[in-house]
């Protein structure tokens, strides 16, 4: 019944919008023919747009036909500019002047470009996707839905990327990747990128790059590749301000302000926002069967959480002169969360009750990410493409957790085994990075990049557990669960790469030498280890370009260094029956990746990719049983940690297409399927697991002539395949209705996320020779949102920024997520 009512509502709304008619307006007809200047032949599928010079907005856009001809119509009585954009050709702008109702622009010559397609100031005429020799980029500002969605929502449309039901981001079905902000590692996304990206409106972002074969100038970390998020920096003399607001029925309100300023040699871009993570209550359960003693453990309860976030960032640019550029940036993200879980646990053996308790676990946590960087770029008079850059960056990301655990209704669960306790963990990392980069053309076809880098990283975790005495009721520190852990990781690297660009072929190859020195100190226990290692990392990319398409091949090795989440020996006993901890003895994982991609960006673009990757010492999340004896009483708990185990092989196929059915109706599809093979020995057992994983995400958008637009997004995401188990699939759907006002400066959007059910259920399983486990977590599913996007000011061009800078992509990317907030 709910689905029928919802369908009827949307049919009624669409009919109402379609019924609106506007009075006749005198129209201007503009026609012409696009010509390849080199071959002197008609050029089809050129993006052609009529631009209002006053607002710099596209009034009408389309594609030239196979014979190069095009016809555009727009309201008469105005001056227009004609914008022409095509992959592999230089952009062309033509001023149109006519007092009549027809303009014949004649033959418009398009010159081939030796460089990749550059940015243009006309949003509506930019192609959505671009395939380069080692990456795919998705132009967020060219997608009309960017006014309505968050950055995390937009990621579902980007080729090779997936966002699952728990807001976990995946690249080619893998959580082993690295996220960069403007080509630099950022403390903002060090712990949980989903929290940050779902908080930011997509209007802050220029484009997202998926670098599948990272060249030698990037650190060798991130097995599946690199996700590079480029923020907006449009600017000229003047200013531009944008305001965004979100009101969500589940997650509350959020506010964002962004803008750019350019005055003389000084330029600045900024963004900032704050909001609520919602006041949420969900249910969960854990069920485990232990083979040896026939124990069955059943837990169920509720999770309550509420939180708030804030973020901000700015980039400054000052041109000392035409050859000297100074830039700086500052970014910050903060998140505070209060949580409480009420849980009942029962253990029986063959139907006989053995143990029970009721746990009230309350606590709070806070996370802060801070980045500060400064860059100096030196140019050379003889060649504007010859650059020398010096960079420094400081990152700091503290993460504090506190939990208070109180047990009641104990049955065969004495205080001597597990007393009431409080646990504290003050963890985080501090990074200092120094880098020098040099780039220069050697000839018209060959260019070189070289550089050196030092990352001085300190990961730390100061943790302790305080047990409550049953007599005095006072808390005393438990020395067995207390330590001061410091993990120093110093990485020194040099790289050299070359690019050869010919008329139809582009090749890039390079080597990167990295030396890693480690020191893991358990200060309280007086234990220290200091292994070190060196790696020589090759990367090769090759692109064959055709008239409107290209074929790409890439090979590279990547290193997966464990991050603080995997290394931290802090034992999380929030659920004392199912504990988790990191492993400071983890070694880096080495991965080999091969890529083959076909791209065609004509009227209906398509991108097809085939990939294969393998590793022989993959880092896996695994669980086993631990038998503890306290005061002569034995108790069995399940321990989850990380280990270097066996092999991980992945064969993948991905497809992305964007189709323009009519000028008003567009359709896109982004999907992939992988087959994964896992094997490894853990806890004296040999494990094998394999299976298919995949996802598909589709978008339908129809734009009405009076400023209304309707979009429908839907996706299916399969569960993960892990060494010891798997997780459940997830279905996503989203409806958006938007309306532009004030010459498109104001946009109002209504969003319905997953309207068919209030909650969804996420299941995961673990199977071993000793036990089997099923975890069930309830997540908020349905939400309604109201979004406002307002822009004012006038800016064109780009604020000048340094071409090279610090790009710390050397540590494990997060595959952790949290609830979305549409």
Overview of the molecule:
The chain has 822 residues and is mainly beta. It has four helices and 45 strands. The chain starts with a helix and ends in a 28-residue tail after the last strand. Mean pLDDT is 84; it is low at 1-23, 114-125 and 813-821.
Question: Which secondary structure elements does this structure contain, and how are they paired or packed?
Answer:
Elements: H1 2-19, E1 27-36, E2 41-42, E3 47-52, E4 57-63, E5 69-75, E6 80-85, E7 92-96, E8 102-110, E9 129-131, E10 135-139, H2 151-155, E11 161-163, E12 169-171, E13 178-181, E14 184-185, H3 193-197, E15 205-211, E16 226-231, E17 238-248, E18 252-263, E19 266-290, E20 295-321, E21 324-349, E22 352-380, E23 383-411, E24 421-441, E25 446-468, E26 475-501, E27 505-522, E28 527-529, E29 532-545, E30 549-560, H4 564-567, E31 578-580, E32 589-600, E33 605-615, E34 619-630, E35 633-644, E36 647-660, E37 665-682, E38 685-703, E39 708-717, E40 725-727, E41 730-741, E42 746-753, E43 759-767, E44 771-780, E45 783-794
Parallel strand pairs: 1-8, 13-16, 31-35
Antiparallel strand pairs: 1-2, 1-5, 3-4, 3-6, 6-7, 9-10, 10-15, 11-12, 13-14, 15-16, 17-18, 17-45, 18-19, 19-20, 19-44, 20-21, 21-22, 22-23, 23-24, 24-25, 25-26, 26-27, 27-28, 27-29, 29-30, 30-32, 32-33, 33-36, 34-35, 36-37, 37-38, 38-39, 39-41, 40-43, 41-42, 42-45, 43-44
